[in-house]
Design brief:
The protein has about 290 residues and is mainly alpha-helical. The protein has one domain. Helix content is about 75%, strand content about 5%. The chain is built from eleven helices and two strands, in the order H-H-H-H-E-E-H-H-H-H-H-H-H. Strands 1-2 form a two-stranded antiparallel ribbon. A hairpin with a 2-residue loop joins strand 1 and strand 2.
Length: about 290
Amino acid sequence: MALYAQLFLNTVQIGSVYMLFSLGLTIIFGVMRVVNFAHGELFAAAALLVAALVPAATAHLGVPIVISYALSIVAAMVAVSLLGAVLYQFGFRLYLRDMTGSFILSLGFLLLLQGVLVEIFTGVPRVVPPISEETMVFLGGRVTVQRLVTCAAALVLATSVIGLIKYTNLGMALRAVSEDYEAAMLQGIKYGRIAFVGFLVGVNLAAAAGCLIAPLFTVTPFMGADYLVRAFIIVIIGGLGSISGTVLASFVVALLDTLGGFYFDPTTTTIAMFALVMLLLVLRPQGLMGRSD
């Protein structure tokens, strides 16, 4: 029982962050029909800012760790939001619903941002001081309070975004544009404005995931690549543009990661994931819950 409880806890912890990160990619694709390869670098930028600001605030200014972490999250979210706004206004805005152009553009942004992050933060791995080292036991499985809080925060944020999309006027506009942007424009919805809002929502989800993951793992300018690969696997399995599919696939991939890490090794797990994706593309190209056009 203890083993299964531990595997369950690990799956929920990993899946909650995967879900938060992948939802941003899904929303951007659904609204703009743009595959944003720079999504991982925005995630890494937020994590690096938290990793740089928290030790500076605690060691040099004497700010308590919890307060410094909260202030660092706010600063990182604002900075990445502004960066996302710049990328949209001077890049993605010109390639809305242009898969080829946006593909090339986002690859360029990926390389540019990665170079800037290495120049600013160097390639030296960073570790954020832990907020709490207390451990809790659940059905024989063990989880730190910090990981539990991170998981809860990710789930609350993801649930809030899903609620916003399903039950608010803004969410209705986002869904209308995702379904048929021309029909939505005929109903008076300003596509350019909604696309900008949808892009910022996606960027902020990536930034939030980076802020939450920073104190749990080593932070580097290159960490976004691994999460981006996982996110693409998730959105392909769940279905491009499908919110519910992304949620389901996030925990499927997290379960594969957890079981693969316990019974096999990371390389075998990754191979198994790509095999699953290839099989799914043959049998159901639109994903588990995607629409067939």
